[in-house]
Design a protein that fits this description.
Elements: H1 3-8, H2 16-26, H3 32-39, H4 43-55, E1 59-64, E2 67-72, H5 88-95
Antiparallel strand pairs: 1-2
Helix pairs in contact: 2-4, 3-4
Length: about 120
């Protein structure tokens, strides 16, 4: 097996920052240890990523009892200059699908995304 094939099996399109944001968008009260386990990175790495996302204003954290609740601002632009004309809500919309129809009376996963 060539080194390019071995390397080719390792890369992915999404960064861990995008993965963490998607997990939080799906469940705004998710525990960071559950995000870490689902993505396959350490809890400390998730904590650092959440801090990065907060500093860049993609999300805010609100303390609710002993838990955190996260709210995503879908209007914040993506960071790379070639994608800066797109808000993060476009990325989230591409990956999140409404699981509940409007007539069920329950909010779908997009409910985690704030104004």
């Amino acid at each position: 097996m060539s080194s390019s094939s071995a390397r080719g099996d390792q890369w992915t399109f999404l960064t861990n920052h995008a993965r963490v944001l998607l997990w939080i968008a799906r469940d705004p009260e998710v525990r960071l240890r559950d995000v870490a386990a689902g993505i396959g990175i350490t809890e400390r790495a998730v904590q650092i990523i959440v801090a990065d996302l907060e500093a860049a204003r993609y999300l805010t954290r609100t303390r609710v009892g002993r838990r955190n609740r996260y709210t995503i601002d879908p209007t914040v632009a993506l960071r790379h200059p070639s994608e800066a004309d797109h808000p993060v809500g476009d990325l989230l919309g591409a990956f999140l699908h409404r699981e509940d129809t409007p007539d069920t009376g329950r909010a779908g996963p997009e409910a985690a995304v704030g104004p």
